Target: Luciferase-like monooxygenase
Amino acid sequence: MLKLSVLDQSVAAAGRSQDAAIRQTLALASQCETWGYQRFWVSEHHSHPSIVGTAPEVLMAAIAARTTRIRLGSAGVMLPHYAPLKVAEQFRVLDALAPGRIDLGVGRAPGSDGRTAQLLNPDRHASDNFPQQVMELQAWVTGEPIPAGHPGHGVYAYPSGATSPDVWMLGSSDYGAQLAAHLGLPYAFAYFITEGQGVDNAFNLYRANYRPNERNPKPRATVCVWALAADTEDEAWHLFQSRARWKMDRNTGRIGALLPPDQAVRDYNASEQVAMAELRAGALVGSAPQVADKLRKLAERLQLDEVVIITWTHEPAAQARSYELLAKEFSLTTPT
Model:
């Protein structure tokens, strides 16, 4: 049975305040738990007028207080901005709040522009140390001793407990896949960023080079895909106009809040029309049976038992309805 999970980015919507997007994420998490989704992840972006979730660890704490079963995670913490010890401490606290339910997804990308990234961490070469950071984070999160000779030897991330967060590697290129394989970590490919380009090669590299370990004896992979279901196919494509307009505008350097679908249509030039046709051709959009069929075929091709879904709509009710319809289509149930 294919498991479904959620990635929500707290997207700003035209006509509503940005803080409302954060509260909508909380509401959606509770709903997705009721519908039987496996996990609920939130993202990290900075100085981004469209995606206003800047502090996943804070948002996860609020969600933990409102849920009891669903796994909660970051997709992800942009590790080069931070000290691994502090990230480990934050997520050990989260695991104390929701024992055995915390995923710590990490990425190397800045989640922002270069100037903002430098303000978060003045070290321009911080990303070069990413592999070392991940190894340190792993040790502090799981409670394994830091080797002698390392500045962190004898330092521990508290609080400790019977469980600890699962570290995930996030990526949209071969780099993350190879690092995840080398470190023996679960791997999530950002399919929605590349529109699927590179996913086959990344998974082949990950599975072929995976190094088993006690915590993760087998490779575990998933994809984060953009999908939108509605009660009818026509309605789904109408709602899709909001994201399509955002994508076309972003390609020209214009980034803003998500527009209502009725206001999202504009005239596109020739090159944009080609890009739009390609976007629509690969989009997981339609009625619930149509989207479910596309998701099953994708999961079968990539040999996955879980898919993470991200959905942007201007109206929160349409977003929630999409997740509700897919939960019913896949007969998701909440374990007792």
Q: What stands out?
A: The radius of gyration is 20 Å. The chain has a mean pLDDT of 95. The CA atoms of residues 180 and 205 lie 10 Å apart. The domain at 3-229+285-329 is CATH 3.20.20.30 (TIM Barrel).
